[in-house]
Amino acid sequence: MADGVTTAREAGETEAGVAGSRLAAFLETLDEPATLLERRRRAWERYTELPMPTRKSEEWRYTDLSRLDPESHVPFAPESGEEENRDAGDLPEQAARLLEGMEARSAVAVRVDGRTLHRRLDPALAERGVVFAPIRRVARERPELLAERLYTSDVSPMEEKLWSLHVAMLTGGDVLYVPDGVRVPEPVHVLRWAGEGDRLLSTHTLLVTGREAEVTWVEEYLSPDLESPLLSLSGLELFAGDGATVHYLSLQRYGRGVKHFSIQHLLAGRDTRLSGLNVNLGGDLARDDVTSHLEGPGSESEMLALWFGDGTQHFDHHTLQHHAAPHAYSDLLYKGALTDSARSVFRGLIRVDRGAQLTDAYQTNRNLLLSKHCHATTLPNLEIEADDVRCSHGATVGQVDEGMLFYLMSRGLTRLTAERLLVFGFFDEVLERVPVEGVRERLRDAIGSKIGL
Amino acid sequence: MAEHVLEVRDLRARVAEDESEILMGVDLTLGPGQIHALMGPNGSGKSTLAKVIAGHPGYDVTGGDVLYDGESILEWEPDERARRGIFLAFQYPSEIPGVTISNFLRTAVNARRGEGNEVDVFEFQKELRERMGLLEMDADFADRYVNEGFSGGEKKRNEILQMAVLRPRLAVMDETDSGLDIDALKIVSNGVNTLSKEDAELGVLLITHYKRILNYIEPDRVHVMIGGRIVESGGPELAEKLEEHGYDWLREELASPT
Ligand SMILES: Nc1ncnc2c1ncn2[C@@H]1O[C@H](COP(=O)(O)OP(=O)(O)O)[C@@H](O)[C@H]1O
Ligand SMILES: [Mg+2]
């Protein structure tokens, strides 16, 4: 264990005055706008009231939280809202390298251990009213953008424990606001780097778009391999206005030693087009809970995910396509490949409310297993109360096709390379739906370096 | 360099874990720069021979040997055989969803070149375009997924494209002519002839049912396989005779040993 980490732990312990809880003590040290602080306190209360979910519940049957001990992690110091804004050249080498090839972005932010070191937004967009700033600053300067939105998502009882911890322990977050009719031409890209173990990092994203607005958001989670564990909590709240087009992409490529929990709520207005893609490559454990709320008639939602697990990695995905309005369309395609002793879970639900007639909803999970010891669990489900709907779900778990393998090997590819190329091909069905060429390539590169191709 | 690119000696093989033999003592030699045709009725074992040469794991060799440039290859994995220059144009090529021809071929070229010696992306694209030109293929063909939704003719052309890019020393072509219309047949034959001219050492074993392709690719030798054995070998005139009389006369000769 590194010296610095030990010191942080001790510092946390000496401050732990409130009922011996280091996390409670952390709350006492904060100096931030009263509205945020109040939310944290309420969330902390809720957190302490709620039991940790156990494997007895359907939602947590496959991911064991009993050994998760948030108190053993020292929260990163929260952002102040006063950000540094270094040039790309003055960033730590790791972060600077990540910025390469990201010139074509309308906005970029780089966070290191929760602190923003670099942020830029195309001035022409700022002039048109686009806001891209840390939550704390928005709370001070534009509180109306947070009102009725921040932390208002309809989180499920099974999400609430970790959601509360996330809100209470927030390290920092980014707000993107795109006003009516504004089209953000290039992606907004946020890099979140964590460099220390034994820590708790909690990041929030609030995306709000007006009517007919258009934007693509990309966030990346990164770290080196960590010897002592990092607990990463992340929350997304996306409010897409009527007729807006919003793409959300998350690329989780932490090193080993990280447990990552991500809770995402996407809300679509009338005739909104939403798409979300979650790519999980890193960490020891990653759990995504993703909900699409189709609240507006005529809205469309696409939910995509890819994962590649090796070693003893464990990926758990829970999804809900909630059709609350008629005439909406949602399509889910989750594809994962596993090798070694990796595990994955998909548990998805399409829920169609009584009034949501003429719903069109699809759900597909496909799994590719490359070794004898890996395992994928898939549990697609439907819950339909309307009578005039089209819904379907499907799931497969299979091995690589020996005929295809032989074909590739007969061209000189080793068995391993052939398998990896087949995985790449398997993923392509999802990747080709990524709207921006530059982002698609970045995802391909990240996947390529994970699977070793 | 060995005298023969390919030497098959009394080769016996069966479907893995199965009792009955399909190849029952095949003998065949192919010199550098030569083109041999292998003909024979359906089910006689031609594809099995091709797959055993390529190292298909679904077949067990129960006797005999296969030498490539004088070395026994039976212990080599299929990928090693390919990297050393053996190429099989499949009778039924696999569809590989999500993998483009260009990506696939670049990976294959790099597999042959070895780590640290990867081909420059632009050089590769240039080479690929040239090779596609040789086979009269549209440029966007390279961006299509390998064999997915291809017509029979496109699949066969794709096999020859791979051969053209990978430049093998031994090419076994399993019914590359079947399912081709006359124009496609000419293009494919022209491709094979060009490759054979480019590399004076290239050995080709051309498996076919029909004499048709031999009007465009002239074989040095013609062999006939029936019942898992080569029962007759001769010059190009043997193909004419088969075209005219079919295989029955050979079957009859086999039945009455003289
Ligand atoms: N994988 C296999 N499983 C079962 N039988 C096979 C298999 N491969 C070949 N055979 C049998 O072996 C014989 C020869 O087949 P094949 O080599 O494909 O002949 P050809 O290519 O000359 O038409 C046939 O009777 C065929 O049914
Ligand atoms: Mg055959």
Explain this structure:
The complex is a heterodimer of chains A (453) and B (258). By secondary structure, chain A is an alpha/beta fold. Chain A has two domains: 56-67 and 78-400, no CATH class; 401-453, no CATH class. Helix content of chain A is 25%, strand content 38%. Chain A has helices spanning 3-15, 22-28, 34-49, 93-99, 123-127, 135-141, 143-146, 157-168, 402-409, 415-431, 437-451; strands spanning 74-75, 107-112, 115-121, 131-134, 172-178, 188-193, 199-209, 214-222, 230-240, 245-253, 258-268, 273-280, 285-294, 300-309, 314-323, 329-338, 343-352, 360-369, 375-384, 390-399. In chain A, the strands form two sheets. In chain A, strands 1, 4, 5, 7, 9, 11, 13, 15, 17 and 19 form a ten-stranded mixed sheet that branches. Chain A has a ten-stranded mixed sheet with strand order 3-2-6-8-10-12-14-16-18-20. In chain A, a hairpin with a 2-residue loop joins strand 2 (107-112) and strand 3. The model of chain A is unreliable at 1-18 (pLDDT under 50). Chain B contains eight helices and ten strands. By secondary structure, chain B is an alpha/beta fold. Chain B has a domain at 6-91 and 168-255: 3-Layer(aba) Sandwich (Rossmann fold), CATH 3.40.50.300. In chain B, the strands form two sheets. Chain B has a six-stranded mixed sheet, with helices on both faces. Chain B has a four-stranded antiparallel sheet with strand order 2-1-4-5. In chain B, helix 5 runs parallel beside helix 6. Helix content of chain B is 36%, strand content 24%. The chains are: A alpha/beta (453), B alpha/beta (258). The complex binds adenosine-5'-diphosphate and magnesium ion. Residues 46-47, 91, 174-175 of chain B line the site of magnesium ion. Adenosine-5'-diphosphate (ADP) binds at residues 15, 22, 40, 42-48, 58 of chain B.
